[in-house]
Amino acid sequence: MSFSLPDLPYAYDALQPYMSAETLEYHHDKHHNTYVTTGNKLLEGSEFEGKSLEEIVKGSHGVNQALFNNAGQHFNHLHFWNWMKPNGGGAIPGALEKKITEDLGGVDKMKEDFIQAGVTQFGSGWAWIAVKNGKLEIMKTPNGESPLVHGATPILGVDVWEHSYYIDYRNRRPDYLKAFIENLVNWEYVEKLYNEAV
Ligand SMILES: [Fe+2]
């Protein structure tokens, strides 16, 4: 299989005022598209041709860094568009909320720790909620890495590369992360990934 760029699951201006149409145009049409086209060039003729995206991400990690960077970012961004929705945030589906309370010390603590992971990720990267050995964990990773290469399954991730927030928030990464968790997260999609992971 080769990589392809999906359409956004909403209009470019649907996440305003928390994420602008300009940000989504650059982020989706330029940045994600570059991961797709570069990834396809690197995939062609490699030992990973014909594998699934998750197999490519896991298999290329530490083996083919250039392919890993692009395949990893393709995987991350495919989910990232779905981790947001218009009028997001709000109530967390019951079973997932219960698990967050059990493993992450409650919804408020989870939000605080998720934001803190994003704030303290030095340079480019991602902050995550992942399932590892049946338990939820807050994680952070550099560049195009994800919990997939750390034996875990991501169920929520936020892009803290500057391309994700600089147009709207300039250097105020904490404000971007707060807006993401309070006003953008599509918890139904998080729940779907959680159910698939356990
Ligand atoms: Fe990004």
TrEMBL record:
It comes from the Bacteria. The keyword Iron applies. Residues 94-192 form the Manganese/iron superoxide dismutase C-terminal domain. Mn(2+) binds at H27, H77, D159, H163. Its cofactor is Fe(3+). One of its GO terms (cellular component) is cytoplasm. The keyword Ribosomal protein does not apply. This is Superoxide dismutase. The gene is sod2.
